[in-house]
Amino acid sequence: MNHCLAFKKLLPYLEKERRLKHTNAILYYDIATLCPEKALGDEANLLDYYSTQMAEICQNEEYARLVKEGLNDLSASPMEKRLFRMLFNEVELLGKMPLEDYMKYQSAISASNEMWRKYRPADDFGSWLPYWQKLIDLSRHVADLERKPGMKTRYDACLDSYEPGETEEYLDAIFLPLKKRLIELLAIAKKKQKAYALPPIKRYPVSKQKELSYRMLSIIGYDLKGGCLMESAHPFSNDDFRHDARLTTKFLVEDWRSNVFTCLHEGGHCLEFQNKPREMYDNYVESAATAAICETHSRFYENIVGRSEEFAPFLKKVAAETLDPEIAGIDDLAFYRLINKIEPWLIRCEADELSYCLHIVIRYEIERDLINGKIEGKDVPAIWKRKYREYLGVEVPNDKDGCMQDTHWSEALWGYFPSYALGNIYGAMIAERMEKDIGFRECLRKGEFATILKWFADNDFRYDWMEPGDWIRKVTGSPLTSEPYIRYLTAKFGE
Ligand SMILES: [Zn+2]
Asked: What would be the CATH architecture of the domain defined by 206-340+419-493?
């Protein structure tokens, strides 16, 4: 393969980084699943050891110089250019910030996260606040350093680090009409739901549910020879490794649906890793896809496929075969309603399809104002409660399941939350495109899941290394718009 000179010079660093990253991913998976309790401390040490080596690469002067050289290399291919831009973002901050300040920021993150772990179970926001406010102040400083010319707000710098090119102005224009429509649809759906009774959810042991997980993964085209499935407290998938796309799930004996949709979500992520072209790996851009692009595929398989009327009969059949023959007797429409129950409540992770984006919009509005300095950490619990009441009709009884529920803010992941909503929005745009290209709904109805996966491989996954604005234009032919998503939700949940 023909690479530009800067790429060739960087190659030893890239190889080392990839090996370290792969080792860490295996350790991370092990810690979350198999690792014996007594060995947890040792493995956490190993993880630290390799993470430090990765950070050392970013701090290496020659590496930083080569990355900058790459940025200016006119013979670089588009993939190489994207790689250099990504690497530059990593080394740039260190160039602008004295190492001492950078370490201070890192330790503020560790302290805030550690204290969040300590005070969240005790529902003690007040004791966490000093650590968090310190992190907020430092994060504002870091965002000021990262802010590029032309960025209108400080929060734009945060957004740009996850979704290059994304701005607050643009997101406001996307989220505002979406929020308005979601609130209306929620009221309609709740009213409609009152008119019918749902079949009861019975309890099923983990052993039966596990069988159902494997069947679901095989239906969507997940290659078990290049992955593995285990159980963990917080489900996730190990990304970026072509021959090693592992996932985890969580089993609730009292609600089998949770495992099914977790498998479809994490399985959706893994389909992307397993079906990227070799070229992306050869150019070291296999992990260039932004969080929103990754969430597009997971949420596509979880919701647009998994919770569709066309998929419901497949799921029902497999659930009857693995969990309970009685499930076969449930009427198709009742079963479809069962997997689409609308129930706005406190927790984002287990929100229904309709409420989900409202959880995100609330977080977006709060973190935007927080980073821009319009509000302070102490104001957040009250604002959180007010917005949950206004948007979702949910009373928040405490902070533990309120503004302290997610780990993101304790770790300074400002600008990450919008990715989840963007994933839904991109997914609906893609579904409309796929409908035109291959008759997506008909494929679903006939169970032609391989055709759907092939469409993704040919038209989407191979462009995932691009910046999101370019990627979505390439995949669907149009720029980001929430209209298809609003159309999709209206068709599904409207009058
Ligand atoms: Zn995900």
From this structure: Orthogonal Bundle (1.10)
The answer to whether the pTM exceeds 0.90 is yes
**How many CA within 13 A on the CB side of residue 392?**
28
CB 469 within 8 A of CB 165: yes
Count helices and strands (H / E) in the chain: 21, 2
As a whole number of Å, the CA-based R_g of the chain is: 23
Cα 422 to middle of ligand 1, angstroms:
12
Cα separation, 421 vs 175, in Å, equals: 9
DSSP 313-371: HHHHHHHHHHT-GGGGGS-HHHHHHHTT-----S-STT--HHHHHHHHHHHHHHHHHHH
Q: Where are the beta strands (DSSP E) in 192-351?
A: 229-231, 247-249
Nearest-CA neighbor of 371 among 143, 129, 132?
Answer: 143
Cβ(262)–Cβ(249) below 8 Å: yes
- Token pair for residue 272? 């992307």
Long-range contacts from 275-280, C-beta under 8 angstroms, 24+ separation: 275/453, 275/456, 275/457, 275/461, 276/242, 276/461, 276/462, 276/464, 277/461, 277/462, 278/242, 279/79, 279/462, 280/79, 280/462, 280/464, 280/465
**Per-residue pLDDT tens for 315-354?**
999 999 999 999 999 999 999 999 999 999 999 988 999 9
- CA 423–ligand 1 middle distance (angstroms): 9
Between CA 138 and CA 118 the distance in angstroms is 21
Structure-token match 């994304």, residue found? 166
| Centre of ligand 1 from the C-alpha of residue 389, in Å | 27
DSSP 303: I
266 Cα–ligand 1 center, Å: 6
Closest CA to 277 of 43, 493, 1: 1
Asked if residue 183 lies in contact with residue 358, where contact means CB atoms within 8 angstroms, the answer is: yes
Separation of alpha carbons 339 and 492, rounded Å:
13
Name the amino acid, one letter, at 405. Q
Tell me, in angstroms, the distance from the centre of ligand 1 to residue 295's CA: 5
Segment 199-204 shows an average pLDDT of 93
Residue boundaries of the structural domains of the chain: 1-96, 206-340+419-493
